[in-house]
Amino acid sequence: RVAVVGAGVSGLAATKCCLDEGLEPTCFEQSQDIGGLWRYTEHIEAGRPSLYPSVISNTSKEMSAFSDFPFPEHFPVFLPNALFLDYLRLYTEHFSLREHMKFGTKVVSIRQRPDFATTGQWNVVTEAAGKQTSDVFDAVMVCSGNFSEPSLPLQCFPGIERFRGQYFHSRQYKHPDVFQGKRVLVVGMGNSGVDIAVEASRVAAKVTISTSRGSWLLSRVFDHGYPWDMVLNTRLMSLIKTNLPAPLSWWLLNYKANKWFNHENYGLQPEKSWLVREALLNDDLPSYILTGRITIKPGVKEFKDSSVLFHNCPEEEPIDIIVFCTGYSISFPFLEESVVRVENKHASLYKYVFPTHLQKPTLAVIGLIKPLGGIMPMVEMQARWVSRVFKGLCQLPSQSVMEKEVNEQKKNKVQWFGLTFDEVLKTEWLVYLDTLASFIGAKPSVLGLLFTDPWLALTIFFGPCSPYQFRLRGPGRWEGARQAILTQWDRVLKPTRTRVPAGSSSSFPSLLIVVGFLLLLAAVIFGF
């Protein structure tokens, strides 16, 4: 019996993967429906993520899909939150997950049983309709997310107590009406901060973004009009990024980012461009800066009654409203601190999943990772691995080996928009997926396929690393994986080629395959 905490993206994947392995999951969701972050509500619910109605996915549908359930081909390439929720509902119904869920049920506490050292079992106390219930579970998957507890470090902003205007955390934002005719300051430059600034600039008198470190900015529309992640997240690109000398790799990243526009000219150049950060995705910001709708300023030095003073800027700037886009804190109120240690806004977990010190590996955290790529394939792969660890089919290394890896990751902290995060931001999306896939025997063999299915091998290596690659072999193998890979560009073009004949297709993927075949053939010949 496995307790799954939360019915968002991670909880759905965890429930489904447990069922695939013959385990018995019970998914506890404190709200009345699935969806987590992707389920919009007009009012803010305590303990739940809150999003604004205009949110659109930053990763394309082909790179965001669960690995055995592609998005419908008529869905747009990047999805509004309502359509994303529709996809999650389709997934839930297709795999009959709802019958394993208990809605309106809050997890109050999760504690080790007295015989944990031998059984690995947990006492799980839940509350529904004012009544508490205690159950025993053999394992626990924590899928409660990390966008519910806003981080608002007001002590880091001198003079905020004197400010007479309005201020709030981005979690409270819903509609731009509040900014009508106002002078708005957005503090912090994450994806939400840029989205809110862009929306505010359409009705506000003036909008300023304050960022102490800048950021790389990508557009959803990338080279030749293709989705950014289908161009950047390929096995070839990953091979280049991970094997080039660091300075050369960073130069390549800088070149790609500045190919759209020169970040320095727009005040966005990262303070330390060699650091790996999660790039921002926004299609409008450069043009809004160019047309004067949005101004970029350095970090806040001090707030006054109705103005703000920035570092290295002698003049005060009048403001009426402040939106703090300062991220979120990680917490697990239902767990004892000794089970999952949270320090400096990150948890020390082996492969960002397992606590290293438990006598039995029967508790896992799913989704506590921030890659530059789709989160859904990652949480699904985590859940596939975890369910096999719970079942005893995969073994974890010794405690000392796991702790050594976690401590090495802690050595190099990354400063991200003024907040300190774990080395998790340096996790290469594909490298991480391949690592976990190799644990369960689901990593695709490009070289092996080259001799048995060369067309598929070349598509896998030179084309987008879509999640279906991890269903070609191993446990959970899906018969439709090959076809899904070979038709991925068709599903991308279907919702956009609405004026040209359906039979027409882009030559880009075909040319890529031809060139790729020649390169790979040369590499094999010279390799031998």
From TrEMBL:
Q: Where in the cell is it found?
A: Endoplasmic reticulum membrane
Q: Which residues cross the membrane?
A: 508-527
Enzyme Commission code? 1.14.13.148, 1.14.13.8
Q: Which reaction does it catalyse?
A: trimethylamine + NADPH + O2 = trimethylamine N-oxide + NADP(+) + H2O; N,N-dimethylaniline + NADPH + O2 + H(+) = N,N-dimethylaniline N-oxide + NADP(+) + H2O; hypotaurine + NADH + O2 + H(+) = taurine + NAD(+) + H2O; hypotaurine + NADPH + O2 + H(+) = taurine + NADP(+) + H2O
Named cofactor requirement(s): FAD
The record's InterPro entries line, in alphabetical order, gives: FAD/NAD-bd_sf, Flavin_mOase, Flavin_mOase-like, Flavin_mOase_1, FMO-like
Q: Which domain of life is it from?
A: Eukaryota
Q: How does it sit in the membrane?
A: Single-pass membrane protein
Task: Write down a Pfam family by its short name.
Answer: FMO-like
Per the record's keyword annotation, is Transferase included, yes or no? Answer: no
Q: Which GO terms describe its molecular function?
A: flavin adenine dinucleotide binding; N,N-dimethylaniline monooxygenase activity; NADP binding; trimethylamine monooxygenase activity
Q: Which GO terms describe its cellular component?
A: endoplasmic reticulum membrane
Q: What is its main location?
A: endoplasmic reticulum
What keywords tag this UniProt record? Answer: Endoplasmic reticulum, FAD, Flavoprotein, Membrane, Monooxygenase, NADP, Oxidoreductase, Transmembrane, Transmembrane helix
State the family it belongs to: Belongs to the FMO family.
**What does this protein's UniProt record list under function?**
Broad spectrum monooxygenase that catalyzes the oxygenation of a wide variety of nitrogen- and sulfur-containing compounds including xenobiotics. Catalyzes the S-oxygenation of hypotaurine to produce taurine, an organic osmolyte involved in cell volume regulation as well as a variety of cytoprotective and developmental processes.
- What name does UniProt use for this protein? Flavin-containing monooxygenase 1
What gene does the UniProt entry assign to this protein?
Fmo1
